[in-house]
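pipeline: protein-struct stage 2 | run 1193 | dTDP-L-rhamnose 4-epimerase
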Amino acid sequence: MKNILITGGAGFIGSNLGLKLIEKGYNVTALDNLSIQIHGSNPEKESSTYKSILNTGIKFINGSVTSRSDWEKALKNQDAVIHLAAETGTGQSMYEIQKYVDVNISGTSLLLDILTNSKHNIKKMVIASSRAIYGEGKYLCDKHNYVYPIERKDQDMINGDYECKCPICGNKVALVPTDESSKIHPTSIYGITKQVQEQMILTMGKSLEIPAVAFRYQNVYGPGQSLSNPYTGILSIFSTQIKNNNKLNIFEDGKESRDFVYIDDVVDATMLGLLKPEADYEVFNVGADKPIDVLTVAQHLKKNYKSDIEINVSGNYRKGDIRHNYGDLNKIKNILGFTPKFTFLEGIKNFCNWVESQEIQEDKYQISINEMKNKGLYK
């Protein structure tokens, strides 16, 4: 494999991956629609990731995965496709349902339809899945062993009881790492679309005898993440708020946690999946092997930026959000030899140093919150 197509190739993960592949001697084509939400209205000036791939040898195609002709143009003479292009906001997906289905599911169906019914050279497919497909993930109950809590109840949340309960006895449960064999039960439209994408790619990969691999990325962060997108990327959203001297509103009690994985580690894992035959037809978690609560994230950002903004733990919550989740990495360690290199403290320092070098973006976060309020999805 020499010619690699990356959809979403001007995005956060795609641009970093493309540059790494170019460095290794591959020919890279990036297909991207330069969404205003991510790249701004003038990408050549506003989008750090788009600017990073210009004049690097990466062939850029301005197009959409919802267009058959754009797919056909991009797939010509390619040996592998890394399908990263997607709508990615968990909260936004709960009211922009048609858009998320059109881009994530229908866009993937076009790829597979072309590969099924047309001549091509594709020898490998990689799909970006998500930790969102697990919903609340895996927990341990004293009475019922490993369990998978259902969506938390509104009344519990209103009463300030945010923790997950055993779905059988209702008792408190302890968080454990979620492995790839865990129950799949997404709590958001975004999570559902990623589950469908993953299943489609793996099912048709086997049918077409095209090796395929799915990566269930945890919360990816690092230099280059869009600072203008108010719908996804908690470190970027908080950073933009801090740089605008706006207070941070922390949902629930601030103890909700995520598995924050640094961009360089994500690129390394994805490269292993592309190149190693041991990855064929497998799914892998990609994370940092440790959960970090949101309040801790906010405090570290405030400290790194030497800011005195107010951090308000409000008790607000959003429909579709999960309480905790972090990935069990034993499978990817044992099969692909992947181990994350960056600790959270190292990664957040690198990220904050990069943010300090960027122009301050307009804080649009309240717009996204107002949209959810109007739909009854924000309490």
